[in-house]
């Protein structure tokens, strides 16, 4: 019951209501199915002994009131009635199967969407301890596994349990003694097999979950570093790394499916052997041939329905046990989303960028670290100014920038825009004013226009604005002046055919498309040569005159034209001023300069 609660916690309130109606519907179908089996009894009774038509009150009433000419006509009529009811019950069962499949397959979309929504509404710090491939695995693989091995088996279990109960009641009415032996043989066999494989199922279910995670991790790492793999001739290593978990995953799946299906063959032997014993028992009791044939057909027909139902009950239990690790994983994620999603639906407060940005006495420490990454940092970013933040690797530049962007929340201190404190209530409004250009620009295999108007559908794109930005950032050379190609021709997966300078210009155009009040360049030119960097910075000077610009860099040439420069070292501000002033007076500035000179000499 605890496991079933976990399954249903994955459902939305509406889906829980739908599932209850589906269960009720499946119970109704089970009753109809049992009646379909029972409907053969009067037909077989008449076939074996036509005299029953006159001796049975109900059959006699029907015979006389419908004016049948002979017992033969009545026999044909009863056979047609039985056949029509059989068609009706099977059609009804087929419709129930469709409704069940439709509901469970829709869950794959619904739960997957809730996971995507929940993951996207997490704060940035949450992602720092997560592997992206694990998130993808949960959405694309584990949801499918839970639907196939938890929800679908659960509804199968409900449906076939009630079919089994209804048929057992019917058989009890016909002959309770033989039913007792049938239950002892069939039900006890399935129960014994299930108990024998129970622990093994839990183990291989956990192994499947781990091996599936390893498969996704290897594939993600492989294709995210394909250049290094090809240059280093690492193909065989990655093939081996993928092969081991993939092979174990396949083995676990094979064992699980074998455990689910193999008992059926043994049960069929027991069932048909039992049927033979049943006939011998009736002969031993000196029952007449007509009664034996009637009972034999009834039990054969009931067995035709009962054995598949027992197999489905057993198989469903096997699948439910196998799904435990995947259900627990999804349940843990989704149960933590509810409060977060409720908060995300709140209307954000408006925030206006009318004056400077103030970082006041800010401290920050990551959750898995003992020491502070930032220590008592205070800086001021005037409106419409170009401000640079520079420092060696590990100085705290990235952490400070993430705080300004609203991705992280200060452990202590305040970040203000004018007189307003940046908080959870207005963070969305603040981020809407920011254009961000990272060091690595992620591009999709879509037209250039779609990559610049990132997140907008083709119909929503402001084409005039896109063309204007392409011209301003010098991107027209990609398509040699073909304006139509900007909106139609894909640039390749992650812009594989573009140069580093072109990729960075797309990033700049994307940031400017938002018409930001604050433009942030996060090591955006660090991987470029000096000439390309100069072209991009010149383009920035032209296009961002009325925008506050924050440039984070470790290369001094990048921040040479800034109105104000802050120097960070070991999480502290160790200097501020203009380029020429710091060049002669600040030892940390000079240290950075010396390291740049050393790198040039090495080259």
Task: Please tag this protein with its features.
alpha/beta; four-stranded antiparallel sheet; single chain; 24 helices; 603 residues; Rossmann fold; ABC transporter transmembrane region fold
Structure description:
Among the domains are: 14-24 and 97-337, ABC transporter transmembrane region fold; 357-442 and 520-532 and 549-602, 3-Layer(aba) Sandwich (Rossmann fold), CATH 3.40.50.300. The chain has 603 residues and is of the alpha/beta class. The mean pLDDT is 79. The longest helix has 50 residues, at 71-120. The two termini are 67 Å apart. It is elongated. Strands 6-7-8-3-9-10 form a six-stranded mixed sheet, sandwiched between helices. α2 packs parallel to α8 and α3 packs antiparallel against α13. It is built from 24 helices and ten strands.
């Amino acid at each position: 019951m605890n496991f079933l609660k976990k399954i249903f916690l994955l459902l939305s309130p509406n889906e829980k209501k739908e599932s209850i109606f589906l269960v009720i519907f499946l119970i109704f179908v089970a009753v109809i199915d049992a009646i379909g089996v029972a409907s053969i009894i009067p037909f077989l009774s008449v076939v074996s002994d036509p005299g029953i038509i006159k001796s049975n009150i109900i059959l006699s009433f029907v015979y006389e009131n419908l004016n049948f000419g002979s017992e033969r006509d009545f026999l044909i009529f009863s056979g047609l009635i039985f056949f029509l009811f059989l068609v009706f019950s099977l059609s009804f069962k087929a419709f129930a199967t469709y409704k069940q499949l439709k509901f469970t397959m829709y869950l794959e979309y619904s739960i997957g969407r809730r996971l995507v929504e929940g993951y996207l509404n997490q704060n940035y710090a949450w992602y720092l301890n997560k592997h992206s491939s694990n998130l993808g695995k949960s959405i694309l693989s584990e949801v499918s596994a839970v639907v196939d091995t938890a929800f679908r088996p659960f509804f199968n279990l409900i449906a076939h349990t009630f079919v089994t109960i209804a048929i057992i009641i019917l058989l009890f009415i016909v002959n309770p003694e033989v039913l007792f032996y049938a239950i002892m043989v069939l039900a006890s066999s399935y129960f014994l097999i299930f108990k024998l494989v129970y622990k093994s199922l839990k183990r291989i279910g956990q192994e499947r979950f781990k091996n599936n995670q390893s498969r996704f991790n290897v594939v993600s790492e492989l294709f995210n570093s394909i250049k290094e793999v090809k240059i280093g001739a690492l193909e065989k290593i990655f093939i081996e790394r993928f092969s081991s978990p993939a092979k174990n995953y396949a083995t676990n799946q094979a064992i699980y499916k074998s455990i689910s299906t193999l008992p059926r063959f043994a049960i069929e032997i027991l069932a048909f052997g039992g049927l033979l014993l049943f006939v011998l028992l009736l002969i031993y009791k000196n029952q007449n041939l007509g009664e034996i044939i009637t009972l034999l057909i009834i039990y054969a027909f009931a067995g035709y329905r009962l054995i598949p139902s027992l197999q489905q009950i057993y198989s469903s239990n096997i699948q439910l046990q196998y799904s435990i690790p995947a259900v627990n994983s999804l349940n843990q994620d989704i149960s933590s989303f509810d409060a977060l999603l409720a908060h995300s639906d709140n209307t954000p407060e408006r925030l206006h960028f009318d004056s400077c940005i103030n970082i006041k006495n800010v401290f920050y420490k990551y959750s898995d670290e003992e020491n502070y990454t930032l220590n008592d940092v205070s800086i001021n970013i005037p409106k419409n100014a170009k401000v640079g933040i520079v420092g060696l690797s590990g100085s705290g530049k990235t952490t400070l920038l993430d705080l300004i962007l609203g991705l992280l929340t200060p452990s202590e201190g305040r970040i203000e825009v004018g007189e307003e404190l940046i908080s959870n209530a207005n963070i969305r409004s603040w981020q809407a004013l920011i254009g961000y250009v990272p060091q690595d620009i992620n591009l999709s295999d879509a037209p250039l226009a779609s990559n610049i108007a990132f997140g907008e559908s083709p119909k929503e794109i402001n084409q005039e604005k896109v063309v204007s930005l392409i011209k301003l950032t010098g991107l027209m050379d990609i398509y040699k002046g073909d304006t139509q190609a900007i909106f139609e021709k894909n640039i390749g997966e992650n812009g594989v055919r573009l140069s580093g300078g072109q990729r960075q210009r797309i990033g700049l155009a994307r940031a400017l498309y938002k018409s930001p009040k604050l433009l942030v360049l996060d090591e955006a030119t660090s991987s470029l040569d000096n000439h390309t960097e100069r072209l991009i910075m010149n383009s920035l000077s032209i296009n961002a005159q009325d925008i506050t610009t924050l440039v984070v860099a470790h290369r001094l040439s990048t921040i040479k034209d800034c109105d104000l420069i802050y120097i960070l070292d070991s999480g502290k501000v160790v200097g501020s001023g203009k380029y020429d002033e710091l060049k002669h007076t600040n030892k940390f500035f000079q240290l950075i300069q010396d390291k740049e000179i050393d790198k040039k000499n090495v080259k």
